[in-house]
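Table S2 (text version). Query chain:
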Amino acid sequence: MTPARWPEAERRFNGSWRPGYRGCVPTEAIHPYVVELVDRCGTYREASRQSGVHHVTLARLVEREREATQARIASAVLHALYRRRRLDRATGGSDRFRRTTKKRSDREARLDRAREEVY
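Corresponding structure-token output:
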């Protein structure tokens, strides 16, 4: 996502065109991005420092304790994730993100092998 596309991403997540969601974003829409940001940063506090969103708010979004969150929080998370992805591409990423990615790929490989055995 390039800086020129930030407004497009914000429009996609900002539900202001729908009645009842003015200025809010459903948690389900932003949840995968918050989880990725926390995984890439390593801790809630580091993710909070990079995004400007309080670490308790990030934890509540990861745990899906709320149905919706403010659009400005979603925008801050998207901007922080964009910056962190660029940093990780340049430096190789954090240990936690590499471990999480490795676990995920191992799990998918086990599932693929199990599917092959069934067929």
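Notes on Table S2: The two ends are 39 Å apart (CA to CA). The chain has a mean pLDDT of 83.
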